[in-house]
Write a structure and sequence with these properties.
The structure is a homodimer.
Chain A lengths: L1 E5 H11 L14 E7 L2 E7 L3 E8 L1 E4 L2 E5 H10 L4 E7 L4 E6 L2 E6 L16 E6 H9 L16 E7 L2 E7 L3 E8 L8 E6 H10 L6 E6 L3 E6 L2 E6 L8 H4 L6 E6 H12 L8 E6 L3 E8 L3 E13 L2 E6 H10 L4 E6 L6 E5 L4 E6 L6
Antiparallel strand pairs in A: 1-5, 1-7, 2-3, 2-6, 3-4, 4-17, 7-8, 8-9, 10-15, 11-12, 11-14, 12-13, 13-25, 15-16, 16-17, 18-21, 18-23, 19-20, 19-22, 20-21, 23-24, 24-25
Main location (chains A, B): cytoplasm
InterPro entries (chains A, B): DNA_clamp_sf, DNA_polIII_beta, DNA_polIII_beta_C, DNA_polIII_beta_cen, DNA_polIII_beta_N
Subcellular location (chains A, B): Cytoplasm
Chain lengths: 368, 368
């Protein structure tokens, strides 16, 4: 291979695909990035066999070819090069690459490209599109509630549902559940329900920008493909039965409160400073026109916070893990939120007051 | 005590003094901050007995008093409060404090102020002043070469010398030595030579701003006092004999090179990526008009870098630990630097090309 490629574009491409490269892999070839010329572009690929990221970069191809180079060294070298033309030459006979740029020259040992796993080709399946900024928001509003508990693999991902022109993303760690619904561009496609791994959702959310450009998503039986901004991400899906989230979302309440999101978040944040270290419990008392948060860390002290509200229904009280409450307030984009309670021992519901359909269910804790 | 104090000013004050508070202390009172009314101000003090920081904050004193409050909780609570008036009330009978701000109220358990150590009062000694930005630069250009080796305490600080209207700060970890000289405002004061602990220099460099306001420094036999921007820092000095730095700085050379600092830094940074993991060795070859850096990490590959130079004297070669070379290039403020060499096995010297007197001595390593 012999190509000329711009440093900035090359760096962006290998940085993108290196997100799929695992630092701790038992298969040495997976710590590398595949570089392969295809027509007038350089294809770069990284994978840990769970997720694969592929990216095409504009390049002047003098002689075609392919090689696998160590991701860590390749990215750190290209990052430090000046923003000029890089000449990349590989020698198939001994699997080495030469990177030349300005007065700098690097020789790196690589591996033959045919040892690198081939990403599955996904062409048919349930296909739909949605704006990048919208899909990013959907992920950001739900991913934090995904379970880290590997003993229940079906909770370690987000449940993606496509039905009747709508997209739904649901996540739960059994202490709280986050649900977000929106529209997709395609109205007449088959219904689908799959569980996407946490890592995949996280990496996609990082790579998506805030533009209204479309992301294309294709779902097959075992895999899901995301295509946007010249990047393709293919990920395995998680097998298993996701819990029936509809049963978890309460459909009645005795108390309904409208409260300023930022005021509630600030008050919860401060009160959490004096919550007990292990449980993080804060108590919430709902009165006619105010919400009172209290906490008590016996050795340290107590906190008392008041926030103005408008309340419909019964006055009540409930206790939450402060972190679970703050997690959702940080990602809701409306100025006000709605808090719905049935009683002190029933799950609380927090909803966005914007047009977006966002529901967050949070289990109460018994306060001492 | 009962006072009214502005949130922002209160937070800045306790944040400043909390830099002296050690998180791991065997004396519980030292994890706290002393708050004490003095005339129309609130004095706040933090100390780990090695270094003490004291700061005065404007406050409306309704009733005088004093208390010690846990630094960690006090700073995190005050940080999260809105930028409004805080009412701080303490109850001497049970050593508690109440912090009220807007709709938030905190009760915190504290300790009696008389259990808090008293910082030494320093009034007489060798006294001089220098601009804050200048003193910050002097520290930043030398502190990174201070030894971390606790078995040689006299190397774990910077040597401060005052003589003939000049200030000198010297540091060494025996692998390299950094020397910076400048003028002070006072010409006729007694000569002094003391070793200031690394932590003290680091905290001062963080607190100094880039203004031309003066910092006042008073040196006594065992202590040093720094006063600037309403903050007083008193620190113990390190006992022992600092090595004779004049003997370490070479006074002759066979090769003198002028090189662009940023080009040399970039080239060294890239070459270091392929230096051997443990030794970080890069080789430097000096030819008539170019400086060549090479490195070799046997399993990974090789790097080759060229930088244009002007050379006077003999062509030669030398090998350095790349990190030691980069450390000094990062803090020199001139566009070009001067590299002086006597031979491959003698210490190299790097000097700033600006008017500031800066000398950096770096020991060569034997390259394989």
């Amino acid at each position: 291979m012999r190509i000329e490629i711009n440093q900035k574009e090359f760096y962006e491409g290998i940085q993108t695909v290196s997100k799929a490269v695992s630092s701790k892999t038992t298969l040495p070839i997976l710590s590398g990035i595949l570089l392969k010329t295809e027509e007038d572009k350089l294809k770069v690929v990284g994978t840990d066999l769970e997720i694969g990221i592929e990216c095409f970069i504009e390049a002047h191809i003098i002689k075609g070819g392919s090689i696998v180079l160590p991701a860590k060294y390749l990215t750190s070298i290209v990052r430090e090069l000046p923003n000029e033309k890089i000449i990349l030459t590989t020698e198939a006979s001994n699997n080495t690459a030469q990177i030349k740029c300005d007065q700098a020259q690097f020789n790196i040992h690589g591996s033959p490209a045919d040892e690198f796993p081939i990403l599955p080709e996904i062409e048919s399946g349930v296909r739909f599109t949605i704006k990048q900024n919208k899909f990013k928001e959907i992920i950001d509003q739900t991913k934090f509630a995904i379970s880290k508990d590997e003993s229940k693999p079906f909770l370690t991902g987000g449940l993606l549902i496509i039905e009747e022109g709508n997209i739904k993303l649901v996540s739960t760690d059994t202490y709280r559940l986050a649900y977000r619904e929106d529209q997709i561009n395609e109205k007449d496609i088959s219904a689908e329900k799959v569980i996407i791994p946490n890592k995949t959702l996280n990496e996609i959310a990082k790579l998506l920008d805030n533009s209204e450009d479309l992301i294309e998503i294709i779902i097959t039986e075992n895999q899901i493909l995301f295509k946007f901004s010249g990047v393709s991400i293919v990920s395995r899906l998680i097998e298993g039965q996701f819990p029936n989230y509809k049963q978890v979302i309460p459909n009645k309440n005795n108390t309904k409160v409208i409260v300023d999101k930022n005021e509630l978040l600030s008050a919860a944040k401060r009160a959490s400073l004096l919550a007990k270290k292990d449980s993080n419990i804060i108590k919430i008392n709902l009165e006619k026109d105010k919400l009172i948060i209290t906490s008590n860390a016996p050795e340290i002290g107590q906190a008392y916070e008041e926030v103005s509200i408008s309340l419909v229904g019964q006055e009540t009280e409930i206790a939450f893990n402060a972190i679970y409450l703050m997690d959702c307030l940080k990602v809701i984009d409306s100025e006000e939120v709605v808090l719905e309670l049935l009683g002190s021992l029933s799950p609380g519901v927090i909803k966005s007051k914007s047009e977006d359909e966002y529901i967050y269910v949070i289990m109460p804790v018994r306060s001492a």
